[in-house]
Amino acid sequence: MIVGALAFLVGILGVQTFQVLPGAAELLACVVCAVWLAVLRWWRLVGLPLGFIWAVVVAAGQLSQQLPERLAGIDTAIHGRITGLPEQSEDRARFDFVLENPGPHSPKKLRLVWYRTEHTLKAGQHWAFTVRLKPPHGSLNPGGFDYERWLFTAGIGALGSVRPYPKPVLLGQDSWWRNIDVLRQHIADRLDARLADSGFIKALTIGEGSGISQAQWAVFRNTGTIHLVVISGSHIGMVAGLVYFLVLKGWAWAGCLRWSPQQVAAWAAMAAGIFYAALAGFSIPSQRAVVMLVVLMLAIIQQRPVRPFNTLAVALLAVLLYDPLAVLAPGFWLSFLAVVVIVFAVAGRLGKASVWLEGIKVNWVTSVGLSPLLLWFFQQVSLCSPLANFIAVPVVGFFLAPGALLAVALLFVHQGLADGLLRILDYALQGLYALLAQMAAWPWAMLDHPQPPFWALLFALPGIVLLIAPRGLPHRWLGLVMLLPLFAAAPNRPAHGEIALTLLDVGQGLAATVQTSGHWLVFDTGAKHSKETDSGLTVVLPFLKSQGVRHLDTLIISHGDNDHIGGADSLLQGMPVQRVLTSVPEKFADYPAQPCTAGQSWVWDGVTFTVLSPGLKPFPKSNDNSCVLKITGQSGAVLLTGDIEKPAESWLLRQYGEALQATVLVAPHHGSKTSSSVRFLRAVRPSLVLIPAGYRNPFGHPHARVLARYQSRQIASATTAQTGALAVTVDDKALALRAFRETNGKYWNWRPAPLQ
Asked: What domains can you pick out in the chain, each with its CATH number?
């Protein structure tokens, strides 16, 4: 069973390496391979081609549900119901919507935004909407979150917004006994009515984490305790174990021996675990936990012995059969690996240590055992995780989680008792969070490191096995040696006099990084999207950390528009910055920002940085007052222009003339028709223009006339909306452009248009 489940997993993983989904020829070859292995009776390996086939079939079905590009931007009338819990703020509501009777080219599941709605949206509501849709599309950057992968695994076939006219119509509301999401909504509403801040309690009881702020998530992430505030396998195991114990004792005390207490307790524990997992929305960790719970309880009912790794193999196979795309989620790997290392370290030992020593050991092995995957997925590892979990796990597992579930049950029975218990739980949660926040603030709490190479991961996993093996195994210290390649990864650096420019994909906005052999500069930081998130937090910081950047030498904010300055605060809070230059220093009251002025210049590693604009006399429009930076290396130059338009371009031509020449030009004002004048392009004479523009942005950037202007002058151009992040190195070799969608995109990613 174990080998067969692993072979099935490997077959599924093979599909995830493809940039284009395998077709009929590859599937036919796999069918032939499976038949050949079956004829040879190599049953354990048959899972390999079967896993490949199953992954392709499911992925192809998912892709077929995505909105075709030709239907994007068209107002469409739909009706269906809200699934999951909507996220509603003052100016917008975001929710998932399942269509009833979708058309032949219409996806079944949508993710919609309703701006400035006066309605309170609830799970299970049926609505008739007019929506404007677009295919699943998100920013794609090194080190960043692949939003398109998340949408793909969630089965979301289109993104869209609700149109105000024709007016949306509420058609009905599901009952809680027909829709588990409605029950989750009732619980969330009652908790919100009882507590000013119910985010933690909702996370523990119904798996709803939207009420937890980004700052709070950062504390849990830095202390390695995120698994405690989402419904994970440990929570389900705890609830099932508690129900099993109570039913076992109660049934035995009642003296009803027609059915054995063990069997009755097993059925009750199984039902409780499945119900709790349903409240959590059947996340991947809860799927694994439920399958393992069912196998264990059925073994008790049938009085059969259970082997831990066989049980885990059954859980693995069941999860992959239910959803082979689960392998794309980090939670899948972290969940299964956590159980593997715990079972390997604890099960089957001859001696039994005290509860405290066992707890310390479990914390140690999980912290060490998961560190390679944490470095691989998130490029960081919490060093204070063993201590934080040693304190937090018993508090959450034995008090907060059971107490929260009891309080939720009391909400439907006795409001007074529920209120009292919720207040106690809230005080305890706030106290635990305050302690974790202090740990997260320790200088050594978190280790950030660039993503290790895959071969280092292959060495690290057997190294973990050596480290946590029983004491009698000789040379366990070699496990530490096998972990060392994880920390040997070092991104490539430009040579002396070379320039490495990366134009990040931040949607409709600008964020660029410039690296020399020993320094880093960031030019603009993208937009702020809401109170909780911005491009500095989600794109710029992850990219810098993936490159091993510990501090930033200079941050330049060209001007004060949101799509350029919006991520600055997150970047300044998340990383030490030596100097800030900007045309709007008044917007940086908390930081010693300096105004950028024509004539400023400095040299890093044989590369000269010169501020060309703004001059002493400001322009009427803020766009034209953007900081303009020219970076000159030994083999070429880069010109970063912010949002300047034709008046500023004309001023630059009068001031510098042919000195504006650059190898690479970042298009002024996202390629708008008010910029990139013929005279300006004639002076700059770029070989390559990089255009920072969002997918299907409302401004029509880049403008068709501007693109035609580039093409008529034989200037190659590329747009981040089509290519993801763009990287180019200005050196003595041929200018090479690397588009992240082309080099790292997978079959679930939106396909780019060919580079011009």
From this structure: 2-64 (no CATH), 69-174 (2.40.50.140), 182-333+397-443 (no CATH), 454-487 (no CATH), 499-744 (3.60.15.10)
